Every structure is written in structure tokens, then in C-alpha cells.
Amino acid sequence: MRTTDGKTARMLQTPKAAAVAGIVAALLLGAAVLLVHLAVPEHPQDTADWVEDTSQRDFLHGALALLPFAGIFFLWFMGAIRDYVGEAEDRFFATLFLGSGFLFVAMLFVMAATTGSLLAVTDVSASPSAGERALWQYGRHLVLELLTGYATRMAAVFVVSTTTIGHRLGIFPRWLAWLGYLVALVLLFAVGGTSHLELVFPLWMLAVSSHVLVVTLRRRRAGGRPDRGAAATP
């Protein structure tokens, strides 16, 4: 096979891999964020009852089981997107893309590890002691602060950098670029507490991945050489 044919096949496979990884990561991340909100008490005074509520603890265990796989597929999504961009990437936005993506995953893992440790040291077989209640007060604040205060801000930077790269290269249509900047603004300024607005990030990932997958499938059916600028048609 000639080099050009191999390059064409690689360009067709890369966006498909990015789309599939992005869809899986979006679904896992969205489910984990929703479970965290369902599990963590909305008000500090509810913490004492939460320690003895096994159903909410089960929600949190489910979120902790999903988060590692969400992080893995998110990294795969990052790698496939960067490979698709290739030599055309802008160093400034590529640095923001990589740095924010890595920090986002790291914060998710720190949140998961800390929450798992708090679950492990909390005994549900007996009434919670004053020390356990104080520990969960701390844990509640830490989980929500990591999720809504820091991880979402890194997600906003990731959205901005990815959207800018995709828009400049003509990979994203205009509507998807505007959606990306709107989602970034929400993640930067509107997220907080228990508003559930963090879910706009996995929804944006789902929109991007679905668009890339649809464009890739259309190109494969047409049997033509992939033109990155063609993805920008509104």
C-alpha cells in the first residue's frame, strides 16, 4: 500500500477513535457527576443522616467505580484529537489543551481517592460519632469544592482550547464553536454548589464526538479523501 493510502486510512480512523472515546467518556463522566450530586448532601446539617443512609452511599460507590474509566477514556479522547490535528496544532492552545485536560483528570482522581478513603473509614453499622460527622462535613466540602470549584474551571479551559483549535482548522462548524464558548462561560462563572451545571461539560463532549463521528462516517461512505475543512459546513 502506498504511503498516501496509509495516511488516508489513518486520518479516517483517528477521528472515529476520538468520537467513540469521547462518547464513552461523556456518558461515564455524566453518570458519575450525577451520582455524586445524588449522593452528597445538599446542606451541611444533612451530613449526620447521610452517614447512616446506605442508598446514598451506594450512589457514591457507583460514582467512584465509574470515574477511573471516565478518566481513561477522556485521555484517549485527548490523544486521538491531538493526533488528528497533527502538525497543524497551535503551540499556545495545544499547551492549554494538554495542561487543562491533565489537570481535569488529576482532580477527578484526587476527588475519587479522597471520597473513597472517607467511605472506607465511616462505619455504617453504628451511630456516627461526633468525629465521623466532622469528618464528613470536611469530606462534603472537599468533594463539592473539587468538582464545582476547580475541576470545572479546568474543563472550561479545555473546552475553550479545543473549540478554538477546531474552529481555526475548520474541523468544527460555527454552531459547535458557539456552543463550546457558551459552555466554557457556564463552567467558568455559573457552576457552583449543587446546581448540576457541571453536566454541560459531558454534554458538550457528546456533541463534539457525535459530530466528528457523523462526519467521519459520511466521508467513509463517500469513499473520498478526508478534507478537514469540510467538517466546518454548518
From TrEMBL:
Organism of derivation: Streptomyces noursei
Name under which the protein is recorded: DUF4386 family protein
Signal sequence, start to end: none
Keywords: Membrane, Transmembrane, Transmembrane helix
TM segment ranges: 17-39, 59-81, 93-122, 142-163, 175-193, 199-217
Domain of life from the UniProt record: Bacteria
The keyword rRNA processing appears for this protein: no
